């Protein structure tokens, strides 16, 4: 729980990392740039990418969250900047890309981490407005940010990583529409792999298991509810944002140069693909 609190109180967001020389988790030099979107998990990814030597641009809808993340990561000596961006707004998406390229000179890696889930409950009870919001942010906006980034990513050979969920494979009853949106992201990865590969861009996804962040609070803040979820996780615990960050950094690195169109499950053993 202590470890979790650190991530709940630090809201980080979307970022776009630029080209730099850095090392992967096993200290082999490689060159790439990153883009990260998201909060707790996004923050961990931003930190990990920056620790690997990348220049990182973080972003989210709220300036104060962006500033908090930038302040924290800069205080750790990391090269991280931030831009406010609501991914549903085409002008703000363009501004995010423009600012990143202006700041760092290029953009090589994009991590699509921003997501929302305004409906927790029976899937048949979701409103059209809630459905639209889920699909607008998680699916449509991710695609159009990606589309805007491609002309930059293709310059040096780039990488795109979606942060999706094990719920794409095994939908959770209370988050049905969100689970469909996460399955759509995996479909998007598969649909894009040929087009992106032609532009020398690798597109992949990380399917996170149950990670203890504010996003998943409904699954762990009540003891008996948490226990029922824990019973479905062979590792017997919720995951940490850093455990998603490690694999995301690997996928974005040249160490993963032959991995295209894949979704890597990081789920503590949840049997997600039966
Ligand atoms: N936690 C889990 O158990 C879990 C499991 C599987 C997959 N995931 C996935 O992991 C990713 C990160 O989740 P998390 O647990 O770290 O949740 P989180 O803390 O709520 O992160 C979501 C982030 O997205 C940003 N965001 C939301 N809407 C946005 C928009 N329209 N434009 C720009 N930014 C927006 C939020 O920042 P602002 O509020 O400041 O905009 C926040 O930083 C999500 O894609 C989620 O689906 C999480």
Automatic annotation (TrEMBL):
Transmembrane segments: none annotated. InterPro entries: NAD(P)-bd_dom_sf, SDR_fam. GO terms for molecular function: carbonyl reductase (NADPH) activity. Gene3D superfamilies: NAD(P)-binding Rossmann-like Domain. Belongs to the short-chain dehydrogenases/reductases (SDR) family. NCBIfam families: PRK07231.1. This is Dehydrogenase/reductase SDR family member 4. It comes from Paralvinella palmiformis.
